[in-house]
Design goal:
Homodimer. It comes from Methanonatronarchaeum thermophilum. The chain is α/β, with parallel strands linked by helices. Helix content is about 40%, strand content about 20%. The protein has a single domain (about 1-215), classed as DHBP synthase. It has helices spanning about 1-10, 40-50, 60-65, 70-75, 110-125, 135, 160-170, 190-200, 210-215; strands spanning about 15-20, 30-35, 55, 95-100, 135-145, 175-180, 205-210. A 7-stranded mixed β-sheet has the order 4-5-3-6-2-1-7. The protein starts with a helix and ends with a helix. Bound molecules: ribulose-5-phosphate and calcium ion.
């Protein structure tokens, strides 16, 4: 039921909430289609979410656009970070970018422009058209790109994969802007119950990782 509501919401360009699981991060992200991002989307994320605002993209598009994992880039440059992420096999971070038509890159207007343009880049590669990424973006920038794992939730069940899987179910461009919800009182991840409450108050469907995987 929730997943159905979530699909409808995404089709309408609106946000959903995705909680991964209690045995992983135990976090809820606000997730919205990057294609329909506007400055208000970013404002909601930093005001009601408060975590990091990122854009998740599918593995094929990342490969086509030559967007490698940051961990692989660092390895190639000689860094030897041995400590693993405590809750998963690897982090999904790729590079951080700003679209060329932004100024500092951090404002709501700038970050929404970058997110929207990332969606365009993904859509172009999906349509098998050429896309010159380096001509359109600057790096480093203020919007981290998250690269979903091959096979999506079969291999990793972070919000990166869960949000791309939801985009696929909704048949929308699979580029999703997302942000973790933090508790303004404790600074910890917002407890699941409070995230559900927020969703009910604001008419935003709350979905869990297992609901998405089992749909
Ligand atoms: C970027 C993150 C977040 O946890 C985000 O939800 C995506 O990561 P993951 O797929 O690992 O859950 O690390 O702020
Ligand atoms: Ca997460």
């Amino acid at each position: 039921m929730n997943v159905k509501k979530g699909i409808k919401q995404l089709k309408n360009g609106k946000p959903i909430l995705i909680y991964d699981s209690s045995d992983r991060e135990g976090e809820t992200d606000i997730v919205a289609p990057a294609k329909h991002t506007n400055p208000n989307t970013i404002l909601r994320m930093r005001r009601d979410g408060g975590g990091l605002i990122c854009v998740a993209i599918p593995p094929k598009a990342a490969e086509k656009l030559n967007l490698k994992y940051t961990s692989d880039i660092l390895k190639q440059t000689g860094y030897k970070f041995n400590k693993k992420v405590p809750y998963d096999q690897r982090s999904s971070f790729s590079i951080w970018v700003n679209h060329k038509d932004t100024y500092t890159g951090i404002t709501d207007k700038d970050r929404s422009k970058t997110a929207k343009e990332l969606s365009k880049a993904v859509e172009t590669t999906i349509n098998k058209e050429n896309y010159n990424f380096e001509k359109q973006f600057r790096a480093p920038g203020h919007v981290p790109i998250l690269r979903a794992a091959k096979g999506l939730t079969k291999n990793r069940t972070g919000q990166t994969e869960l949000s791309i899987e939801m985009a696929q179910k909704a048949n929308i461009t699979p580029a999703m802007v997302l942000c973790e919800m933090l508790d303004n009182k404790t600074g910890e991840a917002l407890p699941k119950e409070k995230a559900i409450e927020y969703g009910e108050k604001n008419n935003i469907p709350f979905l869990t990782g297992s609901q998405i995987k089992n749909y």
